[in-house]
Design brief:
By secondary structure, this protein is α+β, with helices and mostly antiparallel strands.
Length: 403
């Protein structure tokens, strides 16, 4: 379970002009700024709950119903909040909502399980096309006399869909879930002198493409979303990833690369395009942008240079790399969490020459999010040149808009 709720110690509580009840809080254990109650003071322990957390229905959380209740999940979904010029990337609660126990709660302790707080996972993208069978089942459900038959038919459809899915193959490659630097500032201290590179954090869906590999034998090709493996092609679930495999001829590409180099790769990339995360890049069709690859035989991740070489021979583009931040020590990009906000504010723009992923703002220009030509990116991702580490730096303005 992802630690979405932690005990933290308040570092500062800055007053907000014109606001008598709220202050801007920062913490010793992470790099977030959050709006909180004015009664909270520096040195006090509180519960920090990260954005994209799902809170259960409890009396202590009922004040969130008007703004945060998500009916489909019957929980409260925490999203970024902008007020008084501050983007609040979470919410805080006093520790008195925790159950009493003999052992004191410690700063840094995960209390997600204790409070039954979960991480929100966007529903897996599925094709919007409905099969004739599912339409017929829906029609049966409308009439009391045929409803039992409709329920049975739906159960058969779901059973067929489940057979096509399986858990993500973590024994072959890790799920894509980059650490946010605001959650893990210690990584900076460990790798400040490690050569690294930075790329744009593309807004889309994570996809994994690979052949099964077990007992030194190469099995069948299959595709994965961030959490689910789709072993066979279906009309609905996983269809977008299978379509990408066809578009980029991924099975053939991986086989050819294996024959020539002896490396059996599992590749991961961001799927962007129609029907995916608002398609902010306005792509007319789905595209794939590589960000990592692992050799299943040696269990080794490719370095940045190896990934770039594979991209060149395969024709599958990598995520856009920030040229001025390649093969330099981490400290030259970011040496403290306080710098995270500044380095995350990269822009892209729709220009007469096409989509510019590295647009530089001109004087008085401001990025927008609706009916504009200049936009903020979601943020950036920083990795060691040899994959020693990786983390993402989120753009708070983008997070607030997208929510």
């Amino acid at each position: 379970m992802r630690d979405m709720a932690k005990i933290v110690t308040v570092k500062s509580a800055e007053t907000i002009p014109g606001k008598d009840r709220i202050v801007t809080l920062t913490f010793n254990e992470n790099g977030y700024s959050v709006l909180g109650d004015k009664g909270i003071v520096p040195g006090q322990q509180v519960i920090f709950v990260e954005v994209d957390s799902l809170l259960p229905i409890r009396p202590e959380f009922e004040f969130l119903r008007a703004r945060c209740y998500k009916e489909s999940l019957d929980r409260f979904l925490i999203r970024p909040l902008k007020m008084c010029g501050t983007i609040s990337m979470g919410i805080v609660f006093k520790t008195d909502i925790l159950p009493a126990r003999r052992k004191p709660y410690q700063s840094g302790e995960d209390v997600s399980g204790i409070l039954n707080i979960l991480k929100y996972e966007a529903e897996e993208e599925v094709s919007t096309k409905k099969t004739k069978l599912s339409v017929f089942a829906a029609w049966l459900m409308k009439h009391p006399a045929t409803r039992p038959l409709g329920k049975s038919l739906r159960a058969l459809i779901r059973k067929k869909d489940v057979k096509a899915k399986s858990p993500f193959p973590i024994s072959l490659i890790a799920k894509s879930d980059e650490t946010t630097i605001q959650n893990f500032p210690e990584i900076l201290e460990r790798h400040l002198d490690t050569p690294c590179y930075a790329t744009i954090k593309m807004e889309g869906q994570s996809g994994t493409f690979l052949f099964d590999y077990k007992n030194k034998r190469v099995g069948k090709f299959f595709v994965c979303s961030r959490t689910v493996a789709y072993r066979t092609r279906q009309k609905k679930e996983g269809a977008g990833f299978w379509d990408l495999a066809d578009t980029y001829h991924i099975p053939d590409v991986l086989q050819d690369y294996y024959k020539k180099t002896g490396k059996l790769l599992a590749i991961q990339g961001e799927r962007c395009g129609p029907g995916v995360q608002k398609n902010i890049y306005r792509f007319p069709s789905s595209r794939l942008f590589l960000y990592t690859a692992r050799d299943l035989i040696t269990n080794r991740y490719l370095s940045w240079q190896e990934l770039a070489d594979f991209s060149a021979v395969s024709g599958i583009p990598t995520v856009p790399v920030i040229s001025e931040w390649v093969n330099i020590p981490l400290r030259e990009i970011i040496s403290s969490v306080d710098q995270a906000d500044a380095v995350s504010r990269r822009c892209f723009a729709f220009t007469p020459d096409g989509l510019d992923y590295h647009y530089q703002l001109k004087p008085k220009e401001k990025p927008g999010f609706e009916k504009n030509s200049i936009y903020y990116h979601e943020g950036i991702v920083i990795r060691g040149m040899n994959q020693e580490f990786s983390f993402k730096v989120k753009n708070p303005d983008y997070a607030f808009w997208f929510s």
